[in-house]
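Work Package 3 (structural annotation) set out to generate three-dimensional models for the target panel prioritized at the project kickoff. During this period the team completed the workflow that converts sequence records into discrete structure tokens, so that structures can be stored uniformly alongside our sequence database. As a representative example, we reproduce one entry of 88 residues exactly as it appears in the project archive.
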Amino acid sequence: MAEQETLVEFPCDFPIKVMGETRDEFAQTIIDVIRIHDDGFDATKVEMRASSAGKYLSLTCTVYVTSKPQLDDIYRALTAHPMVKFVL
């Protein structure tokens, strides 16, 4: 009973939303951070949306994750990045 730490069943495609200020290199930087933990990450699985005023950019990155530790590592790397405001 105590072994199950998550409701997510691995492996799976998992959407991660990453938000930051609009910058030319933002999307590529986020892709590069994810690829540190998933070298096969497919950049075509990134959806981009700009805020209404255009100041912020939201990326929804669908990552194929194989374990909770891998998913946790991706979240930690993204939240620690200086260009990232929020990760959901």
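Residues 17-87 form a domain with the Alpha-Beta Plaits fold (CATH 3.30.70).
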